[in-house]
C-alpha cells in the first residue's frame, strides 16, 4: 500500500510516551489528547488481550450476547459446535449492524438492510435474489471474525492481533486471582449471567483502571456507604492496615486484603457476614474442600484489576469500555458462584446497593472520575503525581512489587506496562 | 383463567418480561411464540382435523404452514447442510423464479 505521509513525519506526529510517563509522575495529556486515545486503540485495545464476556452468558447452543472491545461492537455466540465465537457486528454487504438486541437465541442472523443471512459463527449463508451475483454461493464473504479468542475459567478474552503473547502469558499471576474467585464456589464454577448494568461515564478509561486498586481513596470517597452499611471494609484501607497493594505485572494489580482477614480469622467476614448466616454454603464448602475450607472462607474473594478492562471487585465484576478520550461505559454485574445459592442472592442485592441505579459505591467513584476529567483539562500543573509509597515498596516472596494498603504501587505497575505497549511501533 | 376472560381489556394481557425481543409465550394448549429479533413465529398444535398437526404462523406476514408428524420427523432428520441451504434467502422467499 502506498501512502503520502512519509514514515518520519508519521513517527514524529505520535506523542513521545517516554517523555510523558515517568516512574513517579504521568502527564495530564495522556487523559485528554485524542491522539493518545487513537494510539491506545491500535496498541492496546486492538492488539492486547481484552476481556469480552463469560461463557456462562451463552449457556445454550444458539445463544448470543452483544459485547464490545473498546468502541467495537462484538457478538459473542455459542455455536452448534458448542464453542464460543466472537464476530464483529457488521454486515459484509454494506456494513449494517446485524444484531440489535442485547441478547437472544439464534443459530442464524439476518441483516435487516438487504436480508443477507449468516450462521452465528460468521459464515455467509445466502443473500436474496441471487441472480444479481450470478447465482448462489458466489460471494467469498463472512462476518469479521476476531483473530484470537481464548478463555480462562470461562472468562473469554479476545485479541485482534494475529499473534503476540498467549492469554496465559498475558494473565500471568492474575490467573491465580480468578482461581481464588472460582474456589469460593463448591463446584469451582463462576457464573456471570445475572445481567449487566451500564453506566456512561464522562472520563478517560485510565482513571477507572487506576482507581480500581487505589487504596488511598476509599476512606474519603466511600465514607458514606461505609457508615450507612456499617461495612468493615473502610479500615482495611488505612495506614494501620496490614493489607497490601501488589503489582502483579503486565499492568495487573490487586489490593490483597488477606493479611487483614487472616488476622481477624473469621470465616465469611470478608463478605460482611458470619458462618451462621450462610450455613448450607459453609457446610458444602467444608464437604468439598475439607481442611482447606477454613482458609478459603476466611481469605475471601480477590480485588484485582486485570489490564486493561476487567475488574473483579470481590462480589462484582466491572468491565471498562472506552468510547473516546473522555468517555467510557462501565458494565457491571454480580458474581454468581455455582452451588452457592445462599451467597448468590446476597451478592445480587449487595450489587444493587453498590452499583445499581440508586447504588452508592459506583456513583461515588463516577463522581470522582468525571471531576477528575474536568480537572485534568486545566493547564497547570501539567503532571499527576503517582509517587505515594515508592520509598516503602518491597518485592514479596514471589518477586512481585508490593506496597502498603494505601500506596500507588498498582498505579505505577499500570503505567510501566502501558508505556511498554505504547512505545511499540506498529 | 385465560387473559381473554377478563373484561378489563389490555391490562391483563400477557407481555414478554424480557427487555430483548426474544419471546417465548406458552398458552394453555402448549402453543406459543418463538421469536427473536430476526423472526417471530406462532406455534400451536392444531386439533381441528382427524389428528393433531403443528400450526406455524409467520407473524410478520401472516403466512401459515401446517406440519404433520412425519413432516416434523423429517425436519429433525434433515442433515445440517440441507437446513443451512434453506436459510439462503434465494432458496426460498427471495428468488427470481415464481413459486410453483
Ligand atoms: S448491509 Fe446487510 S444486507 Fe445489505
Ligand atoms: Fe428507503
UniProtKB/TrEMBL annotation, chain A:
<dbReference type="GO" id="GO:0004497">
    <property type="term" value="F:monooxygenase activity"/>
</dbReference>
<feature type="domain" description="Rieske">
    <location>
        <begin position="49"/>
        <end position="158"/>
    </location>
</feature>
<dbReference type="Pfam" id="PF00848">
    <property type="entry name" value="Ring_hydroxyl_A"/>
</dbReference>
<dbReference type="GO" id="GO:0016705">
    <property type="term" value="F:oxidoreductase activity, acting on paired donors, with incorporation or reduction of molecular oxygen"/>
</dbReference>
<dbReference type="GO" id="GO:0051213">
    <property type="term" value="F:dioxygenase activity"/>
</dbReference>
<protein>
    <submittedName>
        <fullName>Phenylpropionate dioxygenase, large terminal subunit</fullName>
    </submittedName>
</protein>
<dbReference type="InterPro" id="IPR001663">
    <property type="entry name" value="Rng_hydr_dOase-A"/>
</dbReference>
<keyword id="KW-0408">Iron</keyword>
<dbReference type="GO" id="GO:0051537">
    <property type="term" value="F:2 iron, 2 sulfur cluster binding"/>
</dbReference>
<dbReference type="GO" id="GO:0005506">
    <property type="term" value="F:iron ion binding"/>
</dbReference>
<keyword id="KW-0560">Oxidoreductase</keyword>
<keyword id="KW-0411">Iron-sulfur</keyword>
<dbReference type="InterPro" id="IPR015881">
    <property type="entry name" value="ARHD_Rieske_2Fe_2S"/>
</dbReference>
<keyword id="KW-0001">2Fe-2S</keyword>
<comment type="similarity">
    <text>Belongs to the bacterial ring-hydroxylating dioxygenase alpha subunit family.</text>
</comment>
<keyword id="KW-0520">NAD</keyword>
<dbReference type="InterPro" id="IPR015879">
    <property type="entry name" value="Ring_hydroxy_dOase_asu_C_dom"/>
</dbReference>
<dbReference type="InterPro" id="IPR036922">
    <property type="entry name" value="Rieske_2Fe-2S_sf"/>
</dbReference>
<keyword id="KW-0479">Metal-binding</keyword>
<dbReference type="InterPro" id="IPR017941">
    <property type="entry name" value="Rieske_2Fe-2S"/>
</dbReference>
<keyword id="KW-0223">Dioxygenase</keyword>
<dbReference type="Pfam" id="PF00355">
    <property type="entry name" value="Rieske"/>
</dbReference>
UniProtKB/TrEMBL annotation, chain B:
<feature type="region of interest" description="Disordered">
    <location>
        <begin position="1"/>
        <end position="23"/>
    </location>
</feature>
<protein>
    <submittedName>
        <fullName>Uncharacterized protein</fullName>
    </submittedName>
</protein>
<feature type="compositionally biased region" description="Basic and acidic residues">
    <location>
        <begin position="1"/>
        <end position="15"/>
    </location>
</feature>
